[in-house]
């Protein structure tokens, strides 16, 4: 019982520090430090340094600042404007119009980026000013971005599926394939929600631009060419076998620079501004990630997540009851820890329980991505919220409130995924020989 | 007393299961006086940090892949030299020769080895069938250290760098066409999804090692120390046994899932062994006194 | 003094930018070599194997250096996010108190962090720790870079703490990015308009404002 009281104390400290306005990364470090002091006798300073060093020199993470830089370059060129003016005539009939661009741009970007933070930062940087300029609802704009950016984790490549696949010895290739249909499901749910919202709130969608003929639409579509080249170049470099998914981020930077230069938008000033902007944003994210990694290590020493997971395991639940219990567990933990940390800390305890309940490990991997995606948009610790707060200057609760419908949609997606497990399992079953 | 023990590999890996049993044995033998909590799959510290975390007493005990330390001293990596020791018997003899030197070297870092367990012998995975070394020419071969890069070059292969999680995709897109790894790693990553042929070439037999911080160990009661050492001894012999069973089981799993499992041709083995000899001659020249001592002891055995 | 300090943060940011460019350069170089190899493979039927040894290790180390050199620069530009919800709704005096307490806490923590990162770098140096993989890189070098970045961050935190105690306005209260700013100014015609007002007064490098 003392452990539960102490855990409550840790959570209270996190809230107090955040409310006082202590920077998120520092708050995570400080809470980790206190947990380590209270729950274990490991030497604080050396663990702090070692854990931070291990989390910071990471090849997998190297793609993050590159993707952010790519977004900064596009943001400073006509390309981002072209993307929206090129798509606008095509979307006039679809209720919600350009809001759908957030969903589809995130889905496309997710195909090259394994993280939702990079997806949110890159797409948001481009779309927020464009949608703002065109008078779209701020809340829907932020909400669609926060929700759709989580596709970065589901549509391959995906950092979280790699972590899960390695920890549980599942085939990463199969997990990636398993994520495709659930990814499509989420896209449909999100777009469907935008349509429904736009039909109910006609007044809040900016007034219709003039109807356009097919010829005009095609002419406008030409403006999309550079962006399509960029997407093709990035994805193509991977499928031609000359770049790994992490390498592709650098390819994206180079293509973006070339396109910006070709369109006459690349000056020394815009280059420098874009680079320094990328330095600031990626520093903000990597420092929070380092804080989260240290908190993960501290929680590993303290054993709190292990203890809670074991407690669920001891309840002797049926498969469906277990899923409900685990979803609650992950959503609550997900408020305070980053999703990857939760998976790292609890797979050892949870996987045997899950397998005993007869749940397919590939299916469970996709389920985990959904709950981790949800944790990305719950306050106070949610990475997509942090990114959007940084982009918009709006408060974290305002951002979280905007993201709430998408949180609920993901909850609905979990129910669908449970009712129709083949959504995740059909495609991988084709791979077996 | 309770000890946290970081290990790099997942729960299902036989090394980790052996460690769980070791922790269990220690608890039983000491009547709970020493409890070891195993943090598997790099959940506490990532693989490259584990040794240094034990050194600086952040944790008292840990496991890592021994030849990860090759760049510190070649003596640590002799078990990853191609075609030096290829059977379990030879690998055990090599460990007998290597252990005293490794013990000395680790003592400089305040570490003491408890035991080491071999991985299954490493096999060759390729997209296309391979009959002779000639067939390897010009294909892209995954190299993750200096020895493998050299091996690739001597075999006329094109070395290429692929991170572990990228392996399936790299094979699918042609960024890599061949790799050497154990049947365990191949089976656990479902190699049949992306590669066709497996050759049991037994290139080398690398080891995982379990080390304890000397100060932390000395702080234990003498009876507990003895219990730990006894459990370690049992874990070592049990682990080598598990490793042999694993080799059979995982190789079977490869063929059951549709991979073509081959015994390599005489010609291929002859060519590969020639490359191995060339490499060990070079290695000896660069390895320094510690490495040389191991090689002499091994060749005398 | 002010000028020297601002220069220090700025140089730190420039070093971080150089490392970010270095990550991109080393990866692009490897991709270019892969492309050449691919073409050679198609023409001659066998690949050459053009590799930048340990390029992924180098990219990871550059990332560590970039992230930590960027810390003070990002801090001064208000890029590190915080939860301002409560602060917005309390009296100015109390807000100031929270800012001072917060700055004091992070100054102490940064100093502690710097010290132990330095200890780690010295230990790596003493034991001769190196990376595994094709090219051995001494670990104390990147760890030393991280220590430097944390050291400058400590100075930046202390700087703001002193300014606050003397009754001034902290640099960390700079507003960061304000992509919605176009909304407050009425819809403007270009992306540049949407970027809105300058983010802070931090010298010639202040990013988003132009
Ligand atoms: Na993705
Ligand atoms: Na959250």
TrEMBL record, chain A:
Indicate whether Transport appears among the record's keywords.
yes
Write down the superkingdom of origin: Bacteria
Q: What does this protein do?
A: Part of the tripartite ATP-independent periplasmic (TRAP) transport system.
- Identify the keywords attached in UniProt to this record, alphabetized: Cell inner membrane, Cell membrane, Membrane, Transmembrane, Transmembrane helix, Transport
Quaternary structure, from the entry: The complex comprises the extracytoplasmic solute receptor protein and the two transmembrane proteins.
> Species name for this entry?
Marivibrio halodurans
TRAP C4-dicarboxylate transport system permease DctM subunit domain residues are: 12-422
Provide the membrane topology annotation: Multi-pass membrane protein
Q: Name one GO molecular function term.
A: transmembrane transporter activity
The record, for InterPro entries, names: DctM (IPR010656), TRAP_DctM (IPR004681)
Task: Name the Pfam families for this protein.
Answer: DctM
Stored PANTHER family: C4-DICARBOXYLATE TRAP TRANSPORTER LARGE PERMEASE PROTEIN DCTM, SIALIC ACID TRAP TRANSPORTER PERMEASE PROTEIN SIAT-RELATED
Where would you find the membrane-spanning parts of this chain? 6-39, 99-121, 142-166, 172-200, 221-242, 248-264, 285-304, 324-350, 362-387, 399-427
Q: What is its main location?
A: membrane
Family membership, please give it.
Belongs to the TRAP transporter large permease family.
Per UniProt, subcellular location reads as: Cell inner membrane
Q: What is the lineage of its organism?
A: Bacteria, Pseudomonadati, Pseudomonadota, Alphaproteobacteria, Rhodospirillales
State the protein's name. Answer: TRAP transporter large permease protein
GO CC list: plasma membrane
UniProtKB/TrEMBL annotation, chain C:
- Domain Tripartite ATP-independent periplasmic transporters DctQ component positions: 57-165
- Report if keyword Thylakoid is assigned: no
Q: One Pfam annotation, family name?
A: DctQ
Topology with respect to the bilayer: Multi-pass membrane protein
Q: Which residues cross the membrane?
A: 12-32, 52-75, 96-117, 137-158
Q: Where is the composition biased (Gly residues)?
A: 199-210
List every stretch annotated Disordered. Answer: 185-210
GO biological process annotations for this chain's record?
C4-dicarboxylate transport
Q: Which keywords accompany this UniProt record? A: Cell inner membrane, Cell membrane, Membrane, Transmembrane, Transmembrane helix, Transport
Listed InterPro entries: DctQ, TRAP_DctQ
Give the molecular function GO annotations: transmembrane transporter activity
Q: What is its main location?
A: membrane
Q: Where located?
A: Cell inner membrane
Spans of biased composition, class Low complexity? 187-198
- GO CC annotations on file: plasma membrane
Q: How does it assemble?
A: The complex comprises the extracytoplasmic solute receptor protein and the two transmembrane proteins.
Tell me the PANTHER family matching this sequence.
Answer: 2,3-DIKETO-L-GULONATE TRAP TRANSPORTER SMALL PERMEASE PROTEIN YIAM, TRAP TRANSPORTER SMALL PERMEASE PROTEIN
> In UniProt terms, what function does this protein have?
Part of the tripartite ATP-independent periplasmic (TRAP) transport system.
The family annotation for this protein states: Belongs to the TRAP transporter small permease family.
Q: What is this protein called?
A: TRAP transporter small permease protein
Q: Organism source for this protein?
A: Marivibrio halodurans
């Amino acid at each position: 019982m003392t452990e539960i009281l102490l855990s409550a104390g840790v959570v209270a400290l996190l809230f107090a520090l955040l409310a006082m306005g202590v920077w998120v990364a520092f708050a995570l470090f400080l809470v980790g430090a206190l947990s380590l002091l209270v729950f274990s006798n490991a030497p604080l300073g050396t663990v702090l340094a070692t854990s931070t060093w291990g989390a910071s020199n990471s090849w997998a993470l190297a793609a993050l600042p590159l993707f952010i830089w790519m977004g900064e370059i596009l943001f400073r060129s006509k390309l981002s404007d072209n993307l929206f003016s090129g798509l606008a005539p095509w979307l006039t009939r679809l209720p919600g119009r350009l809001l759908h661009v957030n969903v589809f741009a995130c889905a496309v970007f997710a195909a090259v980026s394994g993280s939702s933070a990079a997806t949110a930062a890159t797409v948001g940087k481009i779309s927020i000013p464009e949608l703002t300029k065109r008078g779209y609802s701020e809340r829907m704009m932020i909400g669609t971005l926060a929700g759709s950016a989580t596709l970065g984790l589901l549509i391959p490549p995906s950092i979280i599926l790699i972590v899960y696949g390695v920890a549980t010895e599942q085939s990463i290739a199969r997990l990636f394939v398993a994520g495709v249909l659930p990814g499509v499901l989420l896209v449909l749910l999100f777009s469907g929600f935008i349509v429904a919202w736009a039909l109910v709130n006609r007044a809040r969608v900016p007034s219709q631009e003039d109807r356009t003929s097919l010829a005009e639409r095609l002419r406008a579509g030409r403006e999309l060419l550079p962006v399509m080249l960029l997407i093709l170049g990035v994805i193509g470099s991977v499928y031609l076998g000359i770049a790994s998914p992490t390498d592709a981020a650098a390819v994206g930077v180079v293509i973006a620079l070339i396109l910006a230069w070709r369109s006459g938008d690349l000056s020394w000033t815009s280059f420098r501004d874009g680079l320094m902007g990328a330095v600031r944003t990626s520093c903000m994210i990597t420092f929070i990630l380092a804080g989260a990694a240290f908190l993960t290590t501290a929680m590993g020493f303290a054993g709190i997540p292990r203890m809670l997971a074991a407690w669920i395991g001891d309840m002797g639940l049926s498969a469906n009851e277990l899923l409900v219990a685990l979803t609650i567990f992950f959503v609550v933990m997900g408020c305070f820890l980053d999703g990857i940390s939760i998976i790292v800390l609890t797979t050892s305890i949870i996987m045997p329980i899950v397998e005993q309940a007869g749940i397919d490990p590939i299916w469970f991997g996709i389920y985990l991505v959904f709950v981790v995606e949800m944790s990305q948009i719950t306050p106070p610790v949610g990475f997509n919220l942090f990114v959007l707060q940084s982009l918009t200057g709006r408060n974290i609760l305002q951002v979280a409130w905007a993201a709430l419908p998408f949180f609920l949609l993901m909850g609905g997606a979990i129910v669908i995924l449970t009712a129709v497990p083949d959504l995740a399992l059909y495609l991988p079953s084709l791979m077996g020989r | 007393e309770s000890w946290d023990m970081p290990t790099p590999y997942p729960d299902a890996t036989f090394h980790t299961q052996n460690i769980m049993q070791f922790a269990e044995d220690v608890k039983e033998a000491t009547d709970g006086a020493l409890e070891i909590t195993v943090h598997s799959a790099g959940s506490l510290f990532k693989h490259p940090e584990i040794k240094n975390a034990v050194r600086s007493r952040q944790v008292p005990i840990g496991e890592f892949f021994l030849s990860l330390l090759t760049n510190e001293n070649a003596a640590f990596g002799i078990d990853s030299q191609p075609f030096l020791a290829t059977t379990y018997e030879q690998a055990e003899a090599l460990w007998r020769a290597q252990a005293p030197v490794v013990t000395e070297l680790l003592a400089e870092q305040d570490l003491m080895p408890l035991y080491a367990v071999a991985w299954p012998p490493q096999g060759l995975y390729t997209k296309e069938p391979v009959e002779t070394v000639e067939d390897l020419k010009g294909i892209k071969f995954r190299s993750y250290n200096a020895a493998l890069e050299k091996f690739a070059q001597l075999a006329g292969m094109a070395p290429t760098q692929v991170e572990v999680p990228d392996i399936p995709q790299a094979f699918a897109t042609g960024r890599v066409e061949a790799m050497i790894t154990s049947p365990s790693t191949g089976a656990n990553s479902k190699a049949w999804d992306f590669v066709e042929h497996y050759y049991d070439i037994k290139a080398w037999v690398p080891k995982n090692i379990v080390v304890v911080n000397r100060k932390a160990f000395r702080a234990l009661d003498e009876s507990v120390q003895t219990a730990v050492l006894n459990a370690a001894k049992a874990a070592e012999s049990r682990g080598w046994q598990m490793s042999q069973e694993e080799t059979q089981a995982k190789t079977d799993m490869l063929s059951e899932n549709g991979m073509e499992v081959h015994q390599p041709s005489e010609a291929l083995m002859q060519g590969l062994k020639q490359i191995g000899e060339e490499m060990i001659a070079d290695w000896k020249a660069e390895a320094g006194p510690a490495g040389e001592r191991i090689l002499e002891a091994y060749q005398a055995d | 003094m002010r000028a020297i300090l601002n220069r220090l943060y700025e140089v730190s940011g420039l070093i971080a930018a150089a490392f970010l460019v270095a990550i991109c350069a080393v990866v692009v170089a490897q991709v270019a070599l892969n492309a050449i190899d691919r073409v050679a493979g198609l023409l001659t039927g066998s690949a050459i194997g053009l590799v930048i040894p340990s390029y992924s290790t180098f990219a990871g180390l550059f990332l560590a250096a970039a992230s930590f050199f960027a810390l003070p620069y990002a801090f001064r530009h208000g890029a590190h996010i915080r939860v301002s919800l409560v602060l917005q709704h309390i009296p100015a005096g109390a807000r100031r108190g929270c800012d001072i307490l917060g700055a004091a806490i992070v100054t102490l923590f940064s100093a502690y962090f710097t010290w132990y990162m330095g200890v780690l770098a010295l230990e790596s140096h003493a034991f001769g720790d190196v990376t595994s993989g094709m090219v051995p890189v001494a670990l104390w070098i990147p760890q030393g870079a991280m220590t430097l970045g944390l050291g400058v961050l400590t100075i930046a935190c202390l700087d703001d703490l002193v300014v606050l105690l003397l009754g001034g306005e902290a640099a960390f209260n700079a507003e960061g990015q304000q992509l919605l700013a176009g909304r407050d100014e009425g819809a403007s015609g270009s992306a540049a308009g949407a970027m809105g007002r300058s983010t802070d007064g931090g010298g010639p490098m202040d990013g988003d404002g132009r």
